[in-house]
Amino acid sequence: MKRSLDIRIKTKDEIEILREAGLILAKIVHEIQCSLMIGQTTREIDALVEALIQRNNVLPAFKGYRGFPACACISVNEEIVHGVPGNRVFKNGDIVSIDIGIIHRQYYSDMAVTIGVGELSSSCRKLLDVARQALFKGIAFAQNGGRLGDISHAIQTYAESKGFSVVRDFVGHGIGKQLHEDPEIPNYGHAGTGPILRSGMVLAIEPMLNMGGYKTKTLKDGWTVITADRKPSAHFEHTVAVTEQGPVVLTEYSDITNPV
Fold it and tell me: What are the backbone angles phi and psi of residue 230, rounded to the nearest 5°?
């Protein structure tokens, strides 16, 4: 028997706090993007993430969450999500997914990007471009009165039309006073299905696209998820508010804001 969903509608005041959180997180992610280079380790990047979180007087959402040991999930090449930072060194041609969450005034924000290190192959450049565009295809359907399945369908159809697969085992989610709230947001599905979207819902939409098949495998660390066929994967995520005027990306970077 399916449990009933508990989808929280946020007030305008709550969304304003989530907007503040999103701006802080977007600045942190931007700083990390600008800092990534060949020869760094994933542990070094996580240390920088932690320093930036502390500098902005917010809390890490991931460190300690269900026992996760770091502030950022850092996943390289065939790693899809939940990569545990360690001694892996970035090499020319790597693609690096960095997923960061923060807590600001008791509210969560969540964002992920995939970044190329050095010179990428044409196939990896295409993967990153399509994954990024798939996110915005989904966001466009986060409309008041629409259906959750419209987001999922838009992501899947765009990704598959470009020759990539979408991960089935991991999904987006609602977000607010909890990191993971209802509803789950698959990156595949049928338009016109699922819960009705309402103004005040806040969603973490996060397509994960693979160059090969969609099947996954979790490594012995219990966290790091890789593609079963070891082909590259890309992951992008924004925290988005559904409003009567349309979707609003709360984790959108703006260089008008104060530097981190």
Answer: 65, 20
Closest CA to 225 of 63, 99, 122, 60: 99
Structure pTM?
A: 0.95
**3-class DSSP assignment, residue 123:** helix
Q: What are the CA-CA distances from residue 59 to residues 24, 174, 219, 255 (Å)?
A: 11, 19, 27, 22
Q: What is the CATH number of domain 12-249?
A: 3.90.230.10
Cα–Cα distance measured from residue 38 to residue 68, given in angstroms and rounded to the nearest whole number? 26
Nearest to 195 by CA among 227, 249, 147: 147
Rg over alpha carbons for the chain, rounded to the nearest Å, is 17
Nearest to 208 by CA among 184, 234, 227: 234
- The owner of tokens 């969540």 is 110
pLDDT in tens, 161-211: 999 999 999 999 999 999 999 999 999 999 999 999 999 999 999 999 999
* Structure-token pair, residue 31: 């700083």
The edge-to-edge listing of strands for the beta sheet with 246-249 is 181-185, 172-174, 202-205, 238-243, 246-249
Count the Cβ atoms, other than its own, within 10 Å of residue 172. 28
The sign of the torsion formed by the CA atoms of 54, 55, 61, 62 equals: negative
